[in-house]
């Protein structure tokens, strides 16, 4: 991850890193104080194509263009891009960390508890952080992470009718490898 490849120039395999997306990411990296590298561009490309991806999904996609990239390199890039504010890390229950490039707003997420599908949900009401806690305990609240859990339309239509509830709420757990929405 030490070699820098400016957008618009060929990488080691001779492919040109051109187009609006790499140029926009390159500018954002530079303004965040990061060097533009083909590894960082490849990770950002993977997350543009697969929002809410795990590190393993990112690795699988990046290896298509950079076959020699290591797992450690992926984690290093994810960490540096997250630290620079170019990525957001999602820590959802019963799921490995996930990453997304949508960082300019304080949106929330809806997660299907059956198949693991994840969808972005616009901020509910008001300005960031969208929710105002009744007690801050002296903290300055910057972000409110809300995760709506339920069944996506596909899973709900495939589920048989449920008998009358006994009054207890059963919350299913999300599959380990969740589907990307």
UniProtKB/TrEMBL annotation:
List localization entries.
Cytoplasm
User: Could you confirm whether the keyword DNA-binding appears in this record?
Assistant: yes
Superkingdom of this protein's organism: Bacteria
Q: What PANTHER family does UniProt report for this protein, alphabetically?
A: TRANSCRIPTIONAL REGULATOR FURA (PTHR33202:SF18), ZINC UPTAKE REGULATION PROTEIN (PTHR33202)
Q: Which intervals of the chain are annotated as region Disordered? A: 160-181
Q: Check the record and name the Gene3D superfamilies matching this protein.
A: 3.30.1490.190, Winged helix-like DNA-binding domain superfamily/Winged helix DNA-binding domain
Q: Which keywords accompany this UniProt record? A: Cytoplasm, DNA-binding, Iron, Metal-binding, Repressor, Transcription, Transcription regulation, Zinc
The family classification in the record reads:
Belongs to the Fur family.
Q: What is its main location?
A: cytoplasm
Determine if Transcription is one of this entry's keywords: yes
Q: What is this protein called?
A: Fur family transcriptional regulator
């Amino acid at each position: 991850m030490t070699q820098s490849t400016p957008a618009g120039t060929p990488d080691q395999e001779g492919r040109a890193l051109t187009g609006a997306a790499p140029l926009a990411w390159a500018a954002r990296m530079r303004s965040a104080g990061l060097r533009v590298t083909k590894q960082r561009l490849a990770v950002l490309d993977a997350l543009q194509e697969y929002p809410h991806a795990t590190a393993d999904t990112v690795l699988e996609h990046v290896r298509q263009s950079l076959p020699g990239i290591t797992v450690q390199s992926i984690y290093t890039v994810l960490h540096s891009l997250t630290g620079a504010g170019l990525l957001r890390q999602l820590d959802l229950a019963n799921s490995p960390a996930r990453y997304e490039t949508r960082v300019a707003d304080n949106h929330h997420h809806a997660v299907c508890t059956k198949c693991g599908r994840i969808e972005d949900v616009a901020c509910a009401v008001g300005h960031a952080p969208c929710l105002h806690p009744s007690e801050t305990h002296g903290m300055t609240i910057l972000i409110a992470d809300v995760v709506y859990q339920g069944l996506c339309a596909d899973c709900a239509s495939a589920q048989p009718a449920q008998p009358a509830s006994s009054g207890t709420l059963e919350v299913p757990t999300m599959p380990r490898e969740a589907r990307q929405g």
